[in-house]
Amino acid sequence: MESTDRKADYALERWIIFFLTLLFFVPFIARGQESPGIEVLPVATLGEVEDSALLFKTAAPGVYAIAPRVSSEVEISVVGPIVRTRVRQTFMNTTKETVEGVYVFPLPELSAVDTLKMTIGSRIIEGVIREREDAARQYQKARTEGRKAALVEQHRPNVFTTSVASIGAGEDAIIEIEYQEVARFESGEYRLRFPMVVAERYTPAGSDSPPSSLGAATVRLSVDLKPGHGVREIRSPNHRISTKVLGHNHHQVVLDESNAHRPNSSLALGMTSDFELIWRPDLGSKPEATILTETVGEETYALVMLTPPPTSPIHVVRETVFIIDSSGSMEGASMQQAKQALLLALGDLRPGDTFNVIDFDSDAHALFTESQPVGQDTVAVAQKFVESLTADGGTEMLKAIQLALPAAPRSGTLRQVIFMTDGQVGNEQQLFSYIHENLGESRLFTVGIGSAPNSYFMRNAARFGRGTFTYIGDVAQVKERMGELFEKLSSPVMTSIEIDTGDPTAEVWPSRIPDLYRSEPLAVTIRLSDLSAPIVVRGSIGGEKWTRQLAIPPSGDGNAIGKLWARQKIEAAMDRLSEGASPAGVRTEVVAVALRHHLVSQFTSLVAIDHTPTVPGTLPQTATPSLLLIICGLALASLSAATWRLS
Amino acid sequence: MKRAVIAVAMLAGLAMAAEGAWIPAKAKLAQMLLGVSWQTGGAVKPWPWADTRALAKLTIDRDAVIVLSGASGRTMAFGPGHLDGSAMPGGPGNCVITAHRDTHFAALRYVIPGDVLTLERPRGVVTRYEVVETAVVDKNDTSVLEPTGDERLTLITCYPFNTVIPGGPLRYVVVANKLPAITD
Fold it and tell me: Are residues A434 and A333 in the same domain?
């Protein structure tokens, strides 16, 4: 009897203890609602962020918490010189609350994000290209209605910024962007760069938070390389890569995973370690032409690449004519730069060639009535002449160009006109048409001097003159830039290049094809609708005719050629605007091309509007566990008191 | 040994009750400090480690509460929270403010259509709203948060008002429309 009582007592006790233990956990479950989390993340201001990052807004204005990055996938596709990069980054909201984010990505120069997709939890937001005013209107409308909208803005040059709305606690934010650029060609090699910064710099000392760096998170980077010609070497100076041949002139480059764990001194110091890929074309002994195509809807876009041989097959006798602007606007540093550039150029002339110097201000004046052979005496005379120049007077540019490009040009010699000016002129159209009509076998190279040269004039004068535009912004750059220009000018391979297609609707950009120099392959884009006839490339090598027929590949396996074509078409249309074309007409054309090819331009922008209301999935929890805690607490206390008495 | 366990349980119970009592006390105290900060135009922080910002002063039946930015559990411990992304107080669209039914929005149960609510923004601009509707909705019905073309104020709290267990599925919603400004 007694023993059963005892047993019952124990059973009751056990139940009470079990119940008490349960109660004990209630506050912890209830309190889960309030726990913070954003404080543990490292913080930065927008200006401090140099790497790609997702930033969470904090209570302090302008201060952002850096979200931990889970992974980055980078797919780079190279077609000829075109580099198209697709970045897909996954971030996680490790905090316990819904946060507002800002995504930043450092872009290469002269490039813009044209494709954007954000996946936040179950929401998908896609960027669309809209006419600029239209985009701003939509954005405003969405804002006033309390909807989230993101206008892709540029807070700093070359930094892509977009807001990322309402990322719920524990949710992933996947951000995908695409942008396009043209690979740099330097010393016989193409190079591309992808920004990778080691993020140790953001992580405060002693912080346990996971570093938000590309180095720490998983990074997958691959490059699909279709250079349009053979390559002799593919390398990466800062990273270990594996390369694989996928087909004829088709390579795959993969960033080795070992890079992430490599104890690299520069990585440890938190320095930039951008991914760089360099490929060196394997050039034949003769110039070659190759073709790649891309099919976009019913249209085909072709990229014709002309590659020079590594050594110039011909030795051309050159006549170099320098034009130097000594008008009043050049006074000061500009004049100094121009003089220095010209003196450098005079010292670089080759014996056997001929040269002349033309100076202009209110009038134009040639140093020699006729170009003189390069010799110690003639160069000395020219140097003295240049040193004595002072900047004053008006800008009679046309007279100088008339002296350099006489109305009846001599044929058979290669005349290179190097034009150093700040381009402060008013009669640009007159100058363009003169250059256009009287160019003959001459080539006009413009060298922009001063802090703000009229680059519209320079670029187009060079375009009409089938030459190039070199910009020297700083005295310190004179030597380097002039050196590059001279290196190039000394090695012309093919001139008078023309492209014929059997398609009357074909459109070729650039419309005036520049010459091929030893130092750099040439790329031309063409829009075609008839693929039956081959493309014929014609040129002249030292007076001899050169012809190649290129059959158009039936299935386009190139990428982004259409976009490069469209970008060139837009540039040409924008130039026409400055030439006096009707603004409405140019605008209509640019908008149509930009919308069709999904490009950001002067008149179009990328806007991401989320059409789902950006609210939490449920209404907020709006009751405190206060009463529950009091009741449970008091119940626990009184039950314990009762048990105390029982035992 | 057994007694020790029981003693711990008793202390835990008392601590729990104290914690429960602290919640409404904290809500009251925070509002007092926020009120002082509001008087100074935000020049004085309500408390030295404060990381939220007073957005507006909401008056329901003569009782004023300071509304904070963001409708998270953390801000709602101190005051009603303005839902991020909803219209700004006094601005066009749907301005949504949420608070706990047992602290700052306890007064909502007595609000009826026709009542006037006022929202004062930091520079003294006062917007008046007239209550047009009160409703009970499920927590998954987020339509009340959606943007609207008019200028309205939506107040949300948990429902029913007097249950003990928090986190129930129902919400009490008060909708008020902006009244034209009074000109003296």
Answer: yes
Q: Which long-range contacts (CB under 8 A, 24 or more apart) does A589-595 make?
A: A591/A131, A593/A566, A593/A569, A594/A129, A594/A566, A594/A570, A595/A129, A595/A131
Tokens of B115: 């009542």
8 Å CB contact between A298 and A521: no
- Which residues have CB under 8 Å from A158's CB, separation 6+? A106, A107, A108, A109, A111
CA of A43 vs chain B CAs: smallest distance (Å): 14
A407-419: per-residue pLDDT in tens?
A: 665 666 778 999 9
Q: What is the ipTM of this complex?
A: 0.87
Question: Among candidates A419, A410, A468, A474, which has minimal Cα distance to A439?
Answer: A410
Domain count, chain A: 5
| Class of the CATH-defined domain B2-178 | mainly beta
Check if the beta carbon of residue A102 is closer than 8 Å to that of residue A156: no
Minimal CA separation from B19 to chain A, in Å:
7
**Those residues with Cβ within 8 angstroms of residue A256's Cβ, 6 or more apart along the chain or in another chain:** A239, A240, A241, A242
B158 is catalytic: yes
Q: How many alpha carbons lie under 13 Å from residue A396 in its C-beta half-sphere?
A: 14
- d(Cα A347, Cα A103) in Å, to the nearest integer? 51
A43 touches chain B (CB under 8 A): no
Say if the Cβ atoms of B93 and A144 lie within 8 Å.
yes
- The boundaries of the domain holding residue A520 are 302-312+492-556
pLDDT tens digits along A52-61: 888 888 877 7
Q: Which two tokens stand for residue A597?
A: 């090819």
pLDDT tens-place string over residues A397-406? 899 999 998 8
CA distance A231 to B122: 66
